[in-house]
């Protein structure tokens, strides 16, 4: 402790001695001006005290770029082979060379696949154009019409985007489902959208077989064709589908189309139109049956225009950038970003969470990770992934250094974050610490875009500092066709989702039940309403939900989406998400509690992998279900001399371990500024894995609260029973 204090004193002395020099050289007031300048203006005055004025972005800039002269995505993509040279890289992938199947618990109940992979192989813009045209002709020859619908049901991979480009040319509406959506969700999507064709992967083929073969005789599906993406090995069996379903490989359909074109028998394409239905995208919703948002080309193009106002510099620097694509393409954030970046010349390298980072679970011994080979400059992620990255950085420092250095490292990262917020740079910390951490991500990473859920400001500040990157947190939804708010390159503060993006309308509305009003001081607060051409058309075949969530103002003609999220609007136009109507509960004593805010705070504990806070309507206190971080759980077990027992279930049931984690939760809660009513009074450790695969997290890594409450009904009941007094 003495050494740590001495080091801190030396750093503070150095700071105050060199501060005048840094002040003159770095001119931090310019950076602070860039952060504080106002980014919005009033578009229309409010006619009621219940709502703010309608605001729009004040620095849209111009859209004088050739791409924006086109009215459809088809025309935009067709223009790329003219804009970019023939050898310009467009899409990249790693070919699977082989796999190892490893028994992880010696009794054949749990098997893991480890892959041997090639280096990245690249298709040029010319290659992608020709392959997608071949595929389009092959699909036409298979009988696919503009009036049909085609489901893409596969993991994120290069074939997904090529199929998207091919279907775009045909004008056939594209239905998307997450590869891990599960039996019931996929069944719902197939029947609700009445798809005629499904493009899938071999991994997803068994799910389709199960869905289509488990139907009662009274139910009839419309599927006529299934096309599977080729794998590195030939499948032993394609399953047992009904005889009337035609099953083909993607490569054979592409070859069919290629031959048609070579023979000069190319079939005509339908004329693309801006307002034709383009995508029916199922949301990764946290409650109930998945909803499908219907979008036209107009909404996707509007999303591209909105992104342009934030990351317009790629217009001139696209050739210098590489994007690593690993989030689900069935998620609107990933899809719109990939379209945007590809249009502006950024090459996209496809990856998977199984092979993304060093020590990823899908890498065979001796294999290099995707980030190591690709060396990306841009990546998109969700808050949960950033939380895990931050924990891994901490674990790496703790394992490979002394306790003294670990404490100094934490101090220096916080030090850099503090001075960055004031408009300064920290070149010494960047050179000797951040650069070393950057090497784990390929050494070239410049920009991280984050969305999908609320990002903890502490995680945000530490990631920015540790990696020395621009981390732009944003906000959007499937219903808004992707991001509608985003931080920009001049933002210095943490905890915000930025200002409205280009051509998007913002308004806040009182939510009196939650205690939020647009007259609050110092800043207006209320439910976030967003409007503009970017808002989706409807929830597909669901008029009641559509009328609940959307409305069109007859005075302005603006179409609005009621987000259900609560925001606070700051003078510079930046928005902070402070609550969510669905996350707010009312306890027996009449107090409202924000569960999401509490969970975000408590996740800072090193012992917590995930947490669900719960409050019973007939109680006046909260409880929590905690999925512990397994590494730290075992470390705690070793400290308590329980190292002979590594069974996760037994460790979670251990009263002494539970007590220590409960005490840590109390400490973290107080450090986070939570009030007494917001701190869980009892906890229960859960040994289960909460993941997308187990159905507890959505594909956007959000928690399905209703699923958890149903699955752990007994444990929650026990936490409120008189007999459960282990934590008091």
Write the layout of secondary structure elements.
Layout (H helix, E strand, L loop, with lengths): L1 H25 L1 H9 L3 E5 L9 E4 L15 H11 L5 E15 L7 E14 H17 L8 E4 L4 H13 L3 E3 L6 H11 L3 E5 L3 H9 L11 E5 L16 E4 H13 L14 E6 L9 E5 H12 L5 H4 L4 E4 L6 H12 L3 E4 L19 H5 L3 E4 L1 H18 L2 H19 L5 H12 L8 E4 L6 H11 L2 E8 L4 E5 L12 E2 L4 E5 L15 E7 L6 E2 L3 H7 E3 L6 E11 L5 E6 L3 E3 L5 E3 H8 L5 E8 L6 E7 L1 H10 L8 H6 L1 H17 L10 E4 L19 H7 L1 H8 L8
List its salient traits:
GMP Synthetase, Chain A, domain 3, nine-stranded mixed β-sheet, palmitoyl-CoA ligase activity, Rossmann fold, 728 residues, eight-stranded mixed β-sheet, nucleotide-binding, 22% strand, alpha/beta, globular, long-chain-fatty-acid--CoA ligase, transmembrane
Describe the structure.
The structure is a single chain. Among the domains are: 66-350, Rossmann fold (3-Layer(aba) Sandwich); 587-720, 2-Layer Sandwich (GMP Synthetase, Chain A, domain 3). Helix content is 36%, strand content 22%. It is built from 23 helices and 29 strands. The chain has a nine-stranded mixed beta sheet with strand order 4-3-13-12-14-15-16-17-18, with helices on both faces. Strand 7, helix 7 and strand 8 form a beta-alpha-beta unit. Helix 9 crosses helix 11 (332-343). The model has no long low-confidence stretch (mean pLDDT 90). Belongs to the ATP-dependent AMP-binding enzyme family. One of its GO terms (cellular component) is lipid droplet.
């Amino acid at each position: 402790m003495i050494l740590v204090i001495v080091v801190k004193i030396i750093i503070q002395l150095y700071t105050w001695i060199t501060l005048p020099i840094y002040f003159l050289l770095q001119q931090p007031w310019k950076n602070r001006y860039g952060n504080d300048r106002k980014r919005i203006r009033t578009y229309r005055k409010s006619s009621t005290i219940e709502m703010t004025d309608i605001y729009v972005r004040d620095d849209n800039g111009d859209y004088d770029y050739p791409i924006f002269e086109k009215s459809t995505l088809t025309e935009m993509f067709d223009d790329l082979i003219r804009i970019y040279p023939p050898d310009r890289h467009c899409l990249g992938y790693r070919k699977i060379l082989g796999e190892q199947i490893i028994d992880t618990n010696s009794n054949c109940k749990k098997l893991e696949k480890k892959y041997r992979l090639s280096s990245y192989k690249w298709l040029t813009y010319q290659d992608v154009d020709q392959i997608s045209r071949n595929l389009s002709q092959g699909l036409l020859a298979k009988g696919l019409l503009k009036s049909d619908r085609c489901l893409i049901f596969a993991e994120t991979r290069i074939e997904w985007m090529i199929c998207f480009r091919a279907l775009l040319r045909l004008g056939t509406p594209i239905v998307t489902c997450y590869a891990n959506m599960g039996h019931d969700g996929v069944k719902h999507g197939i029947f609700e959208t009445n798809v005629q064709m499904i493009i899938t992967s071999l991994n997803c083929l068994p799910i389709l077989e199960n869905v289509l073969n488990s139907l009662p005789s009274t139910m009839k599906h419309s599927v006529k064709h299934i096309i599977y993406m080729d794998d590195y090995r030939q499948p032993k069996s394609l399953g047992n589908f009904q005889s009337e379903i035609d099953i083909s490989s993607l490569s054979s359909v592409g070859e069919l189309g290629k031959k048609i074109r070579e023979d000069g028998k190319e079939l005509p394409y339908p004329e693309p139109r801006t307002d034709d239905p383009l995508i029916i995208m199922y949301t990764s919703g946290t409650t109930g049956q998945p909803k499908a948002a219907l979008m036209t080309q107009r909404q996707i193009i509007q999303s591209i225009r909105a992104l342009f106002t934030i990351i317009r510099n790629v217009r001139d620097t696209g050739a210098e950038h590489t994007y690593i694509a690993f989030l689900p393409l069935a998620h609107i954030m990933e899809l719109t970003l990939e379209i945007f970046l590809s249009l502006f010349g950024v090459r996209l390298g496809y990856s998977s969470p199984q092979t993304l980072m060093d020590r990823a679970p899908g890498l065979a011994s001796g294999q290099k990770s995707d980030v190591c080979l690709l060396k990306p400059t841009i990546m998109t992620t969700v808050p949960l992934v950033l939380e895990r990255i931050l924990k891994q950085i901490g674990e790496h420092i703790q394992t490979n250094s002394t306790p003294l250095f670990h404490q100094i490292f934490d101090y220096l990262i916080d030090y850099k974050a503090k001075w960055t917020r004031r408009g300064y740079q920290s070149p010494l910390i960047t050179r000797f610490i951040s650069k070393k951490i950057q090497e784990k991500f390929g050494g070239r990473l410049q920009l991280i875009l984050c969305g999908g859920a609320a990002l903890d400001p502490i995680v945000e500040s530490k990631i920015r500092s540790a990696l020395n990157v621009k981390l732009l947190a944003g906000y959007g939804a499937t219903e808004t066709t992707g991001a509608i708010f985003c931080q920009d390159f001049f933002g210095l503060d943490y905890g915000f989702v930025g200002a409205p993006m280009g051509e998007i309308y913002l308004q806040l509305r009182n939510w009196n039940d939650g205690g939020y009003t647009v007259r609050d001081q110092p800043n207006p607060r209320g439910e976030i309403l967003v409007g503009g051409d970017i808002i989706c058309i409807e929830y597909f075949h669901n008029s009641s939900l559509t009328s609940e969530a959307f409305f069109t103002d007859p005075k302005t003609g603006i179409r609005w989406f009621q987000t259900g999220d609560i925001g606070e609007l700051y003078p510079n136009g930046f928005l902070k998400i402070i609550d969510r109507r669905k996350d707010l509960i009312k306890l027996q004593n009449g107090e409202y509690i924000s569960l999401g805010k509490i969970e975000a705070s408590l996740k800072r504990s090193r012992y917590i992998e995930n947490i669900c806070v719960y409050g019973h309507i007939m109680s006046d206190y909260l409880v929590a279900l905690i999925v512990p971080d397994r590494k730290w759980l075992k470390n705690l077990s070793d400290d308590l001399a329980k190292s002979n027992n590594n069974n996760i279930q037994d460790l979670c049931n251990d009263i002494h371990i539970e007590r220590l984690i409960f005490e840590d939760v109390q400490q973290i809660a107080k450090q986070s500024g939570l009030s007494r009513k917001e701190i869980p009074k009892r906890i229960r450790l859960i040994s289960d894995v909460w993941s997308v695969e187990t159905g507890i997290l959505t594909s956007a890594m959000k928690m399905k609260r209703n699923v958890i409450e149903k699955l752990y009904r007994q444990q929650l009941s026990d936490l409120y029973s008189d007999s459960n007094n282990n934590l008091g």
